[in-house]
């Protein structure tokens, strides 16, 4: 089941974001080794309270198995595309529940909510090292919009 996140979900969501962040750290050295998660209980709570954010929780019975965070973006004169956009900022599924359709259900719920709000597009970023996620999003109909390149100047 997918539903809007609740304050009572925060501790489990924080733990799940840490699991997702750890997964990304294993894939790439670009993630700070000492950071457990980019969120705090306070920052997650602020997202839940904000009209500008979308926070969805996936449940299997009473267990939280996934989440999707996004941000609603209104048109602005300085944007390339002056349309309403849902920017998906973070998606995570518990390792033991990956490939069970939870990510697909979260994305579908987000798209349905976006359509209800008259949003013209859904956008997201995928780390280049995360082939599995890139394939997943391509299967959902996402296409590359631009390429963001980086040159590391620090020896590791």
Order of helical and strand elements: EHHEEEHEH
| Second CATH tier, the architecture | 3-Layer(aba) Sandwich
Q: Proportion of β residues?
A: 15-25%
Global shape:
globular
CATH topology type = Aminopeptidase
What is the average per-residue confidence, as pLDDT, rounded to a whole number? 89
Cross-sheet strand order for the largest sheet: 1-2-3-4-5
Largest sheet: 5 strands, mixed
Keywords: Acyltransferase, Transferase
Protein name: GNAT family N-acetyltransferase
Pfam families: Acetyltransf_1
Would you write up a description of this structure?
About 35% of the residues lie in helices and about 20% in strands. By secondary structure, it is of the alpha+beta class. It has one domain: 3-Layer(aba) Sandwich (Aminopeptidase). The mean pLDDT is about 90. This is GNAT family N-acetyltransferase.
What's this model, at a glance?
Keywords: Acyltransferase, Transferase. The chain has 156 residues and is α+β, with helices and mostly antiparallel strands.
Task: Present the secondary structure layout.
Elements: E1 2-4, H1 10-27, H2 41-49, E2 53-60, E3 63-73, E4 85-93, H3 102-116, E5 121-124, H4 131-139
Parallel strand pairs: 4-5
Antiparallel strand pairs: 1-2, 2-3, 3-4
Name the descriptors.
globular; 4 helices; acyltransferase; single chain; 156 residues
């Amino acid at each position: 089941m997918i539903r809007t996140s609740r304050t009572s979900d925060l501790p489990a969501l924080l733990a799940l974001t840490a699991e997702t962040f750890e997964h990304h750290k294993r894939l790439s050295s670009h993630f700070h080794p000492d950071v457990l998660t980019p969120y705090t209980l306070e920052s997650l709570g602020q997202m839940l309270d904000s009209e500008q954010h979308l926070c969805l929780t996936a449940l299997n019975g009473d267990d939280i198995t996934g989440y999707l965070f996004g941000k609603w973006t209104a048109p602005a004169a300085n944007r390339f595309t002056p349309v309403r956009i849902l920017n998906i900022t973070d998606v995570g599924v518990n390792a033991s529940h990956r490939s069970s359709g939870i990510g697909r259900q979260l994305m579908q719920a987000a798209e349905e909510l976006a359509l209800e709000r008259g949003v013209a597009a859904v956008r997201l970023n995928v780390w280049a090292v995360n082939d599995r996620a890139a394939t997943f999003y391509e299967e959902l109909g996402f296409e590359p919009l631009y390429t963001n390149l980086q040159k590391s100047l620090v020896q590791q």
